[in-house]
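Input (Amino acid permease/ SLC12A domain-containing protein):
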Amino acid sequence: MTELSSSSLDSASQKPRISTGNQPPPLTETGHVNIGVSAGEAPPSPARPADKIRKITVLPLVFLIFYEVSGGPFGIEDTVKAAGPLLAILGFIVFPFIWSIPEALITAEMGTMFPENGGYVVWVSSALGPYWGFQQGWVKWLSGVIDNALYPILFLDYLESGIPILGGGIPRIAAIFVLTVALTYLNYRGLSIVGFAAVLLGVFSILPFAVMTFMSIPKIEPLRWLVVSKKMKGVDWNLYLNTLFWNLNYWDSISTLSGEVDNPTKTLPKALFYALFLVVLSYIFPVLSGTGALPLDQKLWTDGYFADVGKVIGGAWLGWWIQAAAATSNMGMFLAEMSSDSFQLLGMAERGMLPDVFAKRSRYGTPWVGILFSASGVVLLSWLSFQEIVAAENLLYCSGMVLEFIAFVKLRMKYPAASRPFKIPVGVLGSILMCIPPTVLIGVIVAFSNLKVAAVSLAAVVIGLVLQPCLKKVEKKGWLKFSVSSHLPDLMA
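Output:
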């Protein structure tokens, strides 16, 4: 088990000292907490070149979070299909309080406490040790890659009505490959380009729904919102919960980019706050306008149906705009997710959990090896169906979130006076209580999962349990080089 390094806090900053046997880690020059993860006796790697790379500011960070979590209301149509308008609307109002707000708050606290690219991997390592930190990194990276495999599929689904040849066969496979390569190249060219693209794509994706909402007002019939699973044999809870969960999670993914953020102690909490409002509103208003302005036919509410809703409410031009926005939104989600996945691998390599090659950066400051690995996973998984991908990634993501909740509470208990630039205004008991509702929700989602998806997810977890000892063996044999970057604190066993 790795211990936090002991040191007094900087007297000039008037931070309190802790006199317990297990003291909090020392602060860096910027006042951030340091944490070490054992990586053997390998020498430190050269200082990172990323210090000269332009950092991400609030606006692009807001839209990167927006795309990590949402990207707009594309893909939420299944909530209406599964449960009807009333439960769909209530879901997007209540679910953020159960899941999104607690996860965003924990991300703000832990991300400013440990502002480096390992993100949640470092959080878990600091509380539970490097073995469990690696498991966190494995399941989160895998769930991120599975998530990213959705976006080329959704992109083509939205284009299929206009270009039928993309519906299947070799043209569809070729289109997925070309799209993945093109978007991967944008990630390679730099995070500042990705952030700028996220802002432009985000504005373009949100605007048609703002227009649709205003145009639907004269056609709204509020009684249509009160229908629950009309003409269907009850609620499909598995589809309903998985769709809600998939569209309102991944707030912690931005933590793996913390090392690339300008003044993360202030920028990260602000960006999470603004993004939370943006995401929730981008879901509620389209569902209200679509279900309130049109007679309900639940079987039609599936991926891509908002384009048809737009045509009915505003005309063909609005439908085409929504269709184009859906396509571009999937590009934005792909870019944001791949950035987080690849920088997570870089952060793990900088901590000595992965071979040094994963810490290499291109001349644009991007982790090119991590980008290639993530892109390869996307291509390999793109043959799965939408529902299978969502269910599988949700289960893997849930296992990682359980580790995060445990790490959050344990660090609150063990190091209550450690520097936390952003701190949730609750004590240890409040921290525990805050984690109970999302943990219960995880149990419900697992209970409603089907056996096939559960078996695949369990197999993936088992691979991670075996992979970490194998990598330690490789390190011990000297077959690959593992080391800790010199800009990180000294590592302590």
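The chain has one domain: 11-477.
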